[in-house]
Design goal:
Helix content: 25-40%
Number of domains: 1
Largest sheet: 4 strands, antiparallel
Structural class: alpha+beta
CATH topology: Alpha-Beta Plaits
Protein name: Thiamine-binding protein
Number of strands: 4
Order of helices and strands: EHEEHE
CATH architecture: 2-Layer Sandwich
Domain Thiamine-binding protein: 21-75
Number of helices: 2
Shape: globular
Organism: Dactylosporangium roseum
CATH class: Alpha Beta
Distance between the termini: 7 Å
Pfam families: Thiamine_BP
């Protein structure tokens, strides 16, 4: 099943991208899945068998890098 996920990590900072957001982006980029990174969140598309484990790694990374909240939306493209 094809899915799209969008996530936002907090706390927000003005200016430089926070370490938790940069680390999460690095995990997504390493996956090779199609994605978009923006100032208020990251979107990523792929097969659920690839994307769901990726999201687990993103959650762990955000928390390990000082993130205090991660908001996640997952929806099927089908």
């Amino acid at each position: 099943m094809r899915v799209r996920a969008e996530f936002t990590s907090e706390p927000f900072t003005i200016g430089a991208t926070p370490a938790h957001a940069t680390a999460a982006l690095g995990i997504v980029e390493q996956s090779g899945l199609r994605h978009e990174f923006g100032p208020f969140g990251t979107s990523v598309w792929g097969d659920s068998t690839e994307l769901i484990p990726l999201l687990s790694a993103v959650v762990e990374t955000v928390l390990a890098q000082g993130g205090t909240r991660l908001t996640l939306l997952v929806e099927s493209d089908e």
